[in-house]
């Protein structure tokens, strides 16, 4: 049975926004359009995959395997998603504040948002498993 979650809708909304930006900006560079469309495609793929049970089951299996690991690995896996999200956000903020080239900033934001959405979904699913 397929199940739609909030993250399915977030993936679809972000993918639609990236696609619209790619097609509505006639003066953008081909590399920016390519980055936008590739990330939109990834988001559409994640939206479809997130409706299947194996998507959440794989997170559950990884958490079960993690319980058998040493304590430092458990702590590292708990900290790593937060660290990746924080580094992605801080690097984006730093790039926005220091760069005047909007195409590079948009390309980095698109890639960063895709990564952040994946890790937020993972953290949300792990918190539901633990509770």
Q: How much strand?
A: under 5%
For the record, the count of structural domains works out to 1
Task: Specify the overall morphology.
Answer: flat
Helix run count: 5
Describe the overall structure:
The chain is flat. α1 (6-24) runs antiparallel to α5 and α3 packs across α5. The longest helix is centred in the last third of the chain and has 29 residues, at 102-130. The protein has one domain. With 131 residues, it is mainly α. It has helices spanning 6-24, 30-49, 53-67, 71-98, 102-130.
Give me some keywords for this one.
single chain; 131 residues; 5 helices
Question: What's the layout of helices and strands?
Answer:
Blueprint: H1 6-24, H2 30-49, H3 53-67, H4 71-98, H5 102-130
Helix pairs in contact: 1-2, 1-5, 2-5, 3-5, 4-5
Write a short abstract of this structure.
The chain has 131 residues and is mostly helical. The chain has 5 helices and no strands.
């Amino acid at each position: 049975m397929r199940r739609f979650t909030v993250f399915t809708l977030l993936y679809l909304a972000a993918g639609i926004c990236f696609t619209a930006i790619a097609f509505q900006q006639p003066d953008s560079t081909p590399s920016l359009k390519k980055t936008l469309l590739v990330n939109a495609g990834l988001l559409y793929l994640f939206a479809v995959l997130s409706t299947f049970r194996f998507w959440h089951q794989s997170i559950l299996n990884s958490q079960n395997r993690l319980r058998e690991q040493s304590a430092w690995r458990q702590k590292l896996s708990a900290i790593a998603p937060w660290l990746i999200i924080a580094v992605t956000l801080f690097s984006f903020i730093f790039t926005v504040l220091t760069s005047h080239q909007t195409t590079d900033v948009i390309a980095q934001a698109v890639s960063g948002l895709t990564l952040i959405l994946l890790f937020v979904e993972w953290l949300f699913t792990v918190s539901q498993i633990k509770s």
